[in-house]
Amino acid sequence: MTKKQTNEQSRLAVESSAVDGSLSDIPAGVFVHTVYQADVAISITDTHGDILYVNPAFTRVTGYPAAEAIGRNESMLSHKTTPPEVYQSLWRQISRGEAWCGRLINRRRDGSEYLAEVNISPVVNDRGEVRNYLGMHRDITAMHRLENQVKNQKALLESVVDAAPVVIALLDVDDRVVLDNHEYKKLQADLGMAEPATMLMTSIRASLEAEAVNGRRSSGYAFLGREVRLDPADGKPPRWFSCSGSCVREDDVAADAFFAGGGRDYLLLVAMEITSLRAQQEKVRVADLQAAMAEEDRASSLRESLSAATYRLEGPINMMASVVGMLSRRSGESDPMVLALSDAVSVGQQALTELRAMIPAETREPVGSINLNEILRDALDLATGRLLAAGITVTWKPQAMLPTLHAYPNKLRSLFKALLDNAIEAMSARGWRERELMVISRAKLGSIEVVIEDSGPGVPAESQLKVFEPFYTTKHRHLGTGLAAAQQVAADHGGTIEIDPRKGAGCLVRVVLPVKRRS
Ligand code: FAD
User: What is the reported pTM?
Assistant: First the structure.
């Protein structure tokens, strides 16, 4: 430290101590040493910015020794690439007696540049006049580079995420979307729903059941390749997504979390649309289903015919057996008539046994977790050929997400197929022009309601209860077991099926199936 410097420092420190009475007890030397040893570049200037004092940290940052800096203007640090307006605003502010803080591009003594974070505070005398300026600055080049790297990486990540051909959404613990990509926004617009992610998660949770509900918040929780079906409300074909989720933890950046730590959990949901792949698989599945249902129809009609045949044969054979008993008591067992009749009875009984053995066994299907929209879609797909042939316009209005039903899928398929068959048959009457079919599904008070409404001739009021009786039919060439069997299936599921009596023209059948039932 030169003698000139020390004197100047002492004068400044003593003056500031005198301005603020509370500091008057601190020896002037303390200020001098504090400024001298501070690890931030400090300079003190006159009101023109001409340097009066610099500390060693100033020399370390700028490369200018004190002897070279003192007497020169602070503009020696200017790299001349900082826009002039910045300096103008700097000077306007400090001339008004206000502190200024900002970033300037500086040049070191060796010509190299650095980014400086500069604080300039006016030093006023006891009359409030600005006498000096106190400048403090730090080289923040490295920090700025880091900041920019983070910014660039963020921008890069965002553009990659946006350009990704998959739906990406970051969800908080309440399933609120905090970040999404272009594909997600497109899906929102396509489906016309606020948050498709909520729908996807509802469905994924249903499939993961308790495991998902509990596991959602544990770290490392993930699900992979969960297939989810979304049914657009406008009746367009369903869309399929293969969804994966991984847990993302964000460290808390709040100051009070510096030592305590903490953070927030997010779920990164990635959904890849697999609708076209599923459409192919669906075609194959519906064809298989068609074959299986045709086979089941065949087996069931064989079962019915054989049961009826055995039932009808049992009567005469039993009667013959009693006649043989009576004759043998009257004429003896060796009577040729008794022997012949007895042979005929045993042959008949043998035939009955063989006939009974030929009755196909009923297939017992297990209860499964099902999406009723899929079952309804299957029933519609199975009926497509007949609907087209009859020129029937179908309006399909599924509720986008239905609660999972624990049910017998094949039985329900048969139920809805029977209802659709009835509707098609009713509208196919010769000369009948109104040919419109509406199928609606919706969740309602712990149940799922399905409405099948046709524009056919309808069921007369007096027959609306009778149609559910076995063998009752309003048509001639018809067995009349369809609605009775459908009602039995609804009852097997704890549900109901009714024909809406308020419906004017056409027929409206309402099926209500409770959701919570597990068997
Ligand atoms: P200049 O001709 O010096 O001035 C640019 C603009 O500032 C002009 O529009 C002019 O009107 C205005 N101006 C200049 N001097 C005054 C004045 N005395 N009163 C009112 N307006 C004025 N600059 C840096 O680049 N890096 C630094 O680290 C830095 N630290 C500083 C620390 C202190 C304590 C002070 C007081 C100033 C500091 N400056 C710093 C500003 C510096 O004095 C120059 O104003 C700046 O470097 C621009 O220099 P220039 O030669 O390009 O233009």
Answer: 0.56
